[in-house]
Write a structure and sequence with these properties.
Shape: elongated
Distance between the termini: 41 Å
Number of helices: 3
CATH class of the largest domain: Alpha Beta
Strand content: 35-45%
CATH topology of the largest domain: Nucleoside Triphosphate Pyrophosphohydrolase
Radius of gyration: 18 Å
Length: 177
């Protein structure tokens, strides 16, 4: 199967975090138009305390106008390596510092229209060693729980964030929690 040939790519919108392009490409069936969101990428980190409990966040997300449970996460800065971003975001959002940081995998959130890759990490952390440094738009409460509680929250629909579900279940299957 041949890759489609890109005929044009026009910038429609450029924001702080992503850009939107109108792209036209040719497949065996003909010309197709699609809107594509281009994103620098992001990281998500599952912090694990020495006693085996995990650190999650209850974070307000403006797009859905509600609080949801998530793992700490954030967008890569220009030319930033995922490992550096993971350490930075972990400390900024939770005040925890990674003693170890293990890369698990990367995932695509919604490849039908966005190219964002999220790099997943598990961090062994020390108790809060520093203050958080939240962005102006972040409303976050740190929540510490047993992994079994988080898995039950996934089962009963209280954790609905895809990156969080992926990371918790991968960490469980790989023996991190």
């Amino acid at each position: 199967m041949d890759l489609p040939k890109i005929l044009s790519s026009e910038l429609v919108y450029k924001g702080r975090v992503f850009a939107v392009y109108k792209e036209i490409f040719m497949t065996e069936k003909g010309e197709t138009v699609i809107e594509v969101v281009r994103h620098r990428g992001a990281v998500a980190i599952l912090p694990v305390l020495s006693d085996g409990r995990i650190v999650l966040e209850k974070q307000y997300r403006y797009s859905i106008r509600d609080f949801i449970y998530e793992v700490p996460a954030g967008t890569l800065e220009e030319n930033e390596k995922p490992e550096s971003c993971a350490k930075r975001e972990l400390t900024e959002e939770t005040g925890f510092v990674a003693e170890t940081l293990d890369y698990i995998t990367k995932i695509l959130m919604s490849p039908g229209y966005v190219d964002e890759q999220i790099y997943l990490f598990v961090a062994r952390v020390k108790q809060n060693v520093t203050q958080t440094n939240l962005d102006r738009d972040e409303i976050i409460q740190t929540v510490i729980m047993k992994p079994e509680e988080a898995i039950e929250m996934i089962r009963n629909g209280k954790i609905i964030d895809a990156k969080t579900i992926s990371l918790i279940l991968l960490a469980k299957s790989l023996g991190y929690i």
